[in-house]
Each structure stands twice: as C-alpha cells, then as structure tokens.
Amino acid sequence: MRTPYGSDPPPVLRKSLGVVDGVAIAASSTAATTSIGIGLGVTASAVGLHLPIVMLLAFLPILGIASAYTRLNKVEPNMGSGYVWVGRSLSPWLGFLTGWIGIVSTVVFLSYTTAVTGSALLQLAGEAGLDTLGGLRLDPDSTAQSTAIGIVVLIAVTFTAVIGTRSAATLQKWLLVFEYAVLLGFCGYGLIEGPHPFSLDWLNPFTIPSGQALAQGLLLSVFCYWGFESTFSVNEEIKDPEDASRAGLITLFTMLGLFLLGSFAFQRVLSVEELTGHGAQGLTFFGDRLAGQPLAALPLVALTFSAVASLQSGVIPTVRGMFAMSRDRTLGPLWLKVSPRYGTPAAGTVAIGCAAAAIAVLSLLIPKVGDLILASVNAIGIVVSLYYALTALAAASRFRGALRDGVAEGARAVVIPALSALFLLGLGGYLAWTFYASADHFEVSPDNGWFMLLCPAVMVLSGVAAAAWAKWVRKSPYFVPGQPPPESQPAPPPGATPETA
C-alpha cells in the first residue's frame, strides 16, 4: 500500500483564480473595516491623536516588504512563499521558522477574530433590542459569549473554504463591496462634518509621548497591514502568477488609502478618550455619533462582514502554506490531502478551523474582548515583523547580483528590502525589550509585559522545536544541504530584453 507521501508527484490545486479574486482574498485578510473599527482605538492608546502619521510611517517598510514578495514571486511562484524563499536563500531553519510563524500567528488571529465576530453579532443584537436571551444578559465585551457565537461562524466559514477557493473569493468580493461603501460613506462624512478641527500635530511624530509609544504604535500599524501577502499563498491557484503580485500591491495601496481616511475621520469625530475607551465597540460608537438608527447600524454590519471575511481568508492561505510544507515532508501528510470533489485541501482546512476554535476557547483566560484584542495584536505584530523581515532579507540575498546593474536596480532589489527588514527587526526587538523591562512578575494580563512577551516567544520556540522534529524525525529533504535554489534572477518574458525583464 502506498504511503501518504508516496513516490508520485504531489497533488496540485485547481487554477481557478484571477487578479480580482487575489485582491478579494488579500483585502479580506487585511480586514480594513476591522482594523479601522478596532485597531485605530488600540493604536491610539499608544500614540494618541497621531494615527495618520503612524499609519503612513508603518506603510513605508511594508511597501519594501511587498516589493520583496513581488520579486520573489516572479522568480518562483510557490504557495509556501516565505517558507520556500527564505529556506532556499538564507537557511532551511529560518525558512521553516518563517512558515511556522505564519501558521501560528494566523491561528491566533483566527481565535481572536472569532471573538471579535461574536462581539459584533452581539452588538447587532443589542441594536435590534435583544439584550437578553433565556435570562442571560448579552454582553458584547464578554469573551465567553463572543467566543461561543464566533465559533459557530468559524464552522460556517470553514465549510465555505472547503467547498472551493473560488466560491470563498466570490463571497468575499461582495462582502468587501458593502464594507468599503459603508467605510467611504461614513468616514467621508465624518471627515467633513466632524466637530474636532484638523491639526498639523496629527502629522508630527516628534510630539508622540515617547519612543516606546511610537514603537508600539508602529508595530500595531504593521499589524493592520498584515495580510496583503495572503494572495501569494494562492499563487498556485491563480491562472497567472503575476496576478498574485498585482493583487498584493493593489491591496496594499488600497489599505493605505482606507487607513488614512479612517484615521483622519475618527480623529475629526472622536476625542482621544473616546477613541481609546470603546475597544471592540469603537466603530459602533463612531456610527452613533454620525447618524441615527437604522443608518448608525451600518458600520456595525460592515464590521461583522469584515470579521466573517477575515475568518474565511485566514483559513485559506494558512492551509496552503501547510500544504507546501507537507510537500517537503516538514509537516505530516494530512495537509497534503486534496479533496477529489472540491479540489481543495479539505482535511487541512477542517483541522485549521478546529485548531483556531481550540485556541479561542483557551483565550477565555482573558475575560474582556478588548484586553484579548490588545494581547493578540501585540504578540502577532512582533512575530509578523520577524517573518516579514526574513522574507525581505531572502530577497536581498537572492538578488544581490542586482547591485552590479546600477544604482536604481540595486536599490529596488537589495537596499530597500534590506532596510525594511532591519527596520522591522529593530522595531520588534525594541518592543520585546520594553515588554521585558516593564514588569517584575508574571500575570495573565495585557498590562503585564512578561505575558505580552511570552506569547510571541512561545510562537518562535515552538517553531524551533517543530523544525528539529521535521529534520531529525521526519528526515525531511527540505533540510538536506546541497539542493540548488532556483536561478537568482527571473527568466525574461518572451520578447523582453535583459534590461527590461
């Protein structure tokens, strides 16, 4: 009987996506509505009324990271993305760690987004006049209630991810159309009619209270942009791999526009105390300040749609990354199984949904949704900075020959990705140090620095342990030295000269 890995070529997934589908998946992963509705308040707790400049400053290194992803994808389109590129350009250990961090950070993201989704639905119930159910008072800030409802939604979106990426992308496109229409309408109106005057101080980073506050604000903003690379996780299902790069860049610039619009609008409408004091209900409060019911409920509906879409889009790229790792036998054969009916890694999709639900249950240790969001976002921000930086360094290493091709080409291919990587490494390292130095004991609280540091540390250390298992127990060929990487420069397209390729 053939082993699950077998000797035949690994299964392939159906090529059914275009650039618009890639944008839908990436935009749903970045979840602009959720980031604006919740993330702006969390970020304002660190930087006050400096959201626009912090969002803009965080975009610059992320753009450098995106350029690295785009160039690497042109050379080697692979759903493993950073896992493959870092492993071949820097080190298999660092490559595995890049893939692993992407997996565990997304599972943590899914678990807290499960609670956010449940909280949004509870808020909608409250807006509809349903404050109690069976004698139980419904509380949108209760992690227990929000998680219970969110898990039901997680089960539903996992099912849609199983039956096909195309159907999932189609659903996400319609959700995005509604979300963005609501965001543009309310934020545009708030930008014009908000009672608080514009201030040039909003664009002055030097008046942020401290370096630590600036670093935390930048890291939280990096988290808001996180997810644009999801399109590269489905590049083997996109008909033209170049469309994955186009979709990633389109998504990133769209997010910049939405985040700047949201930042200015929120600061025009809300005071700093109102920004930081409403947690998961920030977008609801913003809508109530601008309109009466039922129009005021539209931002909350958009937030709910955004949370649902990000749950679904979080499942899809994670399973694709694990599919790529399973092809190399760094993970088990479960992740390599493709449904003959749907052409998707159905078993792995269900397994990821179950893992996210399990972590969501563990998150009940943090009773308030707002505190859960803060703890999760800080932890994910640190590890995302790490795997973004490793991928950019892989690009700088692989294309270092471009330094001989002129200043402009060398800057695009090597210098900008390397500087972006160093910036993110320094940012994550500095914030990790401030977490360590800010506490003298441990407790499960987002106000405790050691707890905030423990979460990303567990993500990284578990990756080292999993890599050791893959190398010495699974004996994965991924760790065998001497396997030549692909050519360090992409093959020119038909009819192109080396200078224009």
Can you characterise this structure?
- By secondary structure, this protein is mainly alpha-helical.
- About 55% of the residues are buried.
- It has helices at about 20-30, 30-45, 50-75, 80-90, 90-125, 145-165, 165-195, 210-225, 240-270, 270-275, 280-290, 300-325, 345-360, 370-400, 405-435, 450-470; strands spanning about 130-135, 135.
- Helix 6 packs antiparallel against helix 13 (about 345-360).
- InterPro entries: AA/rel_permease1, APC_superfamily.
- This is Low-affinity putrescine importer PlaP.
Number of strands: 2
Kindly provide the radius of gyration, computed on alpha-carbon positions and rounded to a whole number of angstroms: 22 Å
The overall pLDDT average reads 85
| Share of residues in helices | 55-70%
CATH architecture: Up-down Bundle
Q: How many DSSP H or I helices?
A: 16
In CATH, the topology is named: Amino acid/polyamine transporter I
Largest sheet: 2 strands, antiparallel
Backbone structural class: mainly alpha
Distance between termini?
Answer: 47 Å
Strand order of the largest sheet: 1-2
Order of helices and strands: HHHHHEEHHHHHHHHHHH
Could you list the spans in which at least 5 consecutive residues all have pLDDT below 50? Answer: 484-501
**Shape type:** globular
CATH-assigned homologous superfamily: Amino acid/polyamine transporter I
CATH class: Mainly Alpha
Compact summary:
With 501 residues, the protein is mostly helical. It has 16 helices and 2 strands.
